[in-house]
Amino acid sequence: MAESTVIRTVADLDRAVRALCEYFNTDTTIIIGSQAILVGWPDAPALMRTSVEIDAYPCNAREWEAMHPDAEASEEISVLFGYLSDFHTAHGFYIDGVDETTARLPPGWRERAVSRAVHSYGRMVSAIAPATNDLIVSKLHPLREKDKDFIRACHQAKPLDIAVVKQLLADTLPSPHVHNAAMAFLNTLK
């Protein structure tokens, strides 16, 4: 398996978007998780692009599932493009099949979303991802060490408007535990 680097690139993003758009016969793929940063900030710091996976789902996942009642889009992605798949072996990264409930994103994130046009087999398709502030909020919910590193790297490269991030976090109605941990962490950012 060709995993010489775990730094994801725009070429990787485009490859993932093309694969999902082609397989699911759609013109839009939603990217969430850390590699969503590639959609609006392709040259983000390497630490923010360090991952062996891209979390994604086709925008027509529910319609596709209605036409394939015995299948789940996220499972289909995992089998065909996921960990240890032929796609993973060929490209050195995999697509983690997720859905619209995977990341805890603030209300209205789609109106603030960033997009990227991708050439795909003679047509144009799109990658849609949460804007940076919304992506940061999604990382504040689990707030694992890798999420903290991601947020710190983001803030160091392009300082966050902490007040906006705090409001977006509040809009997600987090549990008191999540809210308190996130606020304490945000207050450490300088």
Would you write up a description of this structure?
The protein folds into two domains: 10-131, no CATH class; 133-186, no CATH class. It has ten helices and five strands, in the order H-E-H-E-H-H-H-E-H-E-E-H-H-H-H. It has helices spanning 10-24, 37-40, 61-67, 73-81, 86-91, 109-112, 132-140, 145-157, 162-171, 176-186, and strands at residues 28-32, 53-58, 94-97, 114-120, 123-129. It has a five-stranded mixed sheet with strand order 3-2-1-5-4. Strand 4 and strand 5 form a beta hairpin. The radius of gyration is 17 Å and the shape is globular. The termini are far apart. This is DUF6036 domain-containing protein. Residues 11-171 form the DUF6036 domain. Pfam families: DUF6036 (PF19502). It comes from Skermanella aerolata.
- The secondary-structure element order is HEHEHHHEHEEHHHH
What share of the residues lie within helices?
40-55%
Strand portion: 15-25%
| Biggest sheet details | 5 strands, mixed
Distance between the first and last residues' Cα: 40 Å
- Spans with pLDDT under 50 lasting ≥5 residues? none
Rg on CA atoms, Å: 17 Å
Number of individual domains: 2
Defining traits:
single chain, 190 residues, alpha/beta, 2 domains, 10 helices, 46% helix, 15% strand
